[in-house]
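I hope you will forgive my troubling you with a question about protein structure. I set the record out below, with my sincere thanks for your time.
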Amino acid sequence: MRKKAITKKKVSKKANSVRTTNAYNIKKAKSAYEKKVGQLSTLMALSTILNSTLEQKEVRKRAIEAATRLTESEVGSLLLVDEEKNELFFEVALGEKGEKVKEIRLRMGEGIAGWVAKTGEPVIIDDVQNDPRFFKDADKKSSFVTRNMMCVPVKSEGRVIGVLQAINKLKGGKFTKDDLEGFISLADQVAIAIEKSRLYQELRD
């Protein structure tokens, strides 16, 4: 009888453990789903904002605002490719030291942004300061400390025309694969908006 009682107790304890695990997994899945839906909703809203103007400077400024909002990051930047010089330049860099950062130019392949532009591959870096690709001059000029970063290519018809960066996840967090997925989708929208604004400028000139 005692052995049966012990067995029932073990079974009951195991069942409770399974129920607790299942409840946790369901809650986790629900949270991930809600975050995904929220991200898609934000992306759609930002896409509308991006495409509501054809002025080049405004499009590029909105691209950065969209990047920081979507990825919940401290700052963002948009670098464009200078095809004649084979360099990247900071077209838009938000923040107090933005103008200083805009003086910087990177050779193709130089820095994390240069690497992304050259390879066409997106990247998440959790510890930027210890990444050998990191270009430290940007931090020195801006007096800003880059902790982590997400960097994606902006492509038009398979050609890299720029690089979009999200820097320092808010609340000390880390960028995730879901963040990267949404950021890549945003970069596609940014590419369309930039090319549309360029065409509009050419026709106007």
